[in-house]
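Exercise 7b. C-alpha cells:
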C-alpha cells in the first residue's frame, strides 16, 4: 500500500505495542510513523523495540497533537497520508476504507465523523458550543471537526505543511480550513468509536486555547499566499 500512517503518541505505553502489531499485520509495506510526543511513561522504550519496522520521531517534551502531526508530515513519503490516535479508537477497517477512497481519487480529503459520542455532559456541551463557533466563523457543513481519523493526499500536505501553525488538537480545524482554501474535495465516512477507547480529558484552559486558536486560523492571511503553486 502506498500509505503513510501517522500516530501521535503520548503516554501510550499501556497499549502501543499491541496496536503497532495490529498496524504491521494489516498494512504490510506501508510507512508507519509513531511520534512520541514527550511521553513520561515507557512509550518510547516500547516503540523502540520496533525501530527496524517503523519510523520513530521523538519529541523531548509534550508539544501537542498538532506539533506531532506536523513532525510526521515532514517525513511522510507515501502518496496517501492517514493519521489516527494511538489507541486506534476507530479500528483499522476505516483506515482501509479511507485509503481505498483516496487511491481511487473519490476525494482529496477523507474525514471520519461520529453520531454516537461517548461523552459526559460537560464534554457534550463543550463539543456543541465549539461547533457553533466554528460554523459561525467558517460556514461549512462539517459538524465533527475533531474526529481523530483523517486522510489526505501527500500532494496537498506538501503544499500546506510549511504554513501550518497549530501545535495542539485544533490542528484538525486548521487542516480542514486549508483544504477549503485549496478547494479540496472533502468526503466524510461514518465511524464508531470502540468501547475500549481510552478517553481523553479536556479542561477549561484547553477550551480557551482552542477558541484563541480558532481565531488565529480564521484570520491568518498567510494561508492564502501562493495557494495556487
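Sequence design result:
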Amino acid at each position: 500500500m502506498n500509505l503513510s500512517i501517522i500516530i501521535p503518541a503520548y503516554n501510550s505505553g499501556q497499549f502501543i505495542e499491541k496496536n503497532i502489531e495490529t498496524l504491521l499485520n494489516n498494512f504490510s509495506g506501508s510507512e508507519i510513523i509513531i511520534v512520541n510526543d514527550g511521553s513520561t511513561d515507557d512509550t518510547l522504550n516500547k516503540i523502540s523495540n520496533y525501530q527496524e519496522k517503523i519510523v520513530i520521531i521523538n519529541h523531548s517534551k509534550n508539544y501537542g497533537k498538532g506539533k506531532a502531526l506536523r513532525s510526521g508530515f515532514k517525513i511522510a513519503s507515501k502518496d496517501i497520508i492517514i493519521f489516527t490516535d494511538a489507541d486506534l479508537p476507530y479500528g483499522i477497517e476505516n483506515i482501509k476504507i479511507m485509503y481505498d477512497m483516496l487511491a481511487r481519487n473519490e476525494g482529496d480529503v477523507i474525514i471520519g465523523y461520529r453520531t454516537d459520542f461517548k461523552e459526559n455532559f460537560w464534554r457534550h456541551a463543550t463539543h456543541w458550543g465549539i461547533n457553533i463557533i466554528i460554523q459561525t466563523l467558517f460556514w461549512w457543513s462539517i459538524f465533527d471537526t475533531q474526529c481523530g481519523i483523517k486522510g489526505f493526499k501527500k500532494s496537498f500536505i506538501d503544499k500546506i505543511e510549511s504554513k501550518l501553525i497549530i501545535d495542539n488538537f485544533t490542528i484538525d480545524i486548521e487542516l480542514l480550513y486549508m483544504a477549503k482554501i485549496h478547494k479540496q474535495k472533502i468526503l466524510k465516512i461514518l465511524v464508531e468509536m470502540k468501547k475500549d477507547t481510552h478517553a481523553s480529558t479536556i479542561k477549561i484552559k484547553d477550551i480557551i486555547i482552542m477558541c484563541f486558536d480558532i481565531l488565529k486560523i480564521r484570520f491568518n492571511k498567510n494561508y492564502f499566499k501562493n495557494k495556487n503553486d
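Instructor comment: The longest helix spans residues 121-138. The two ends are 28 Å apart (CA to CA).
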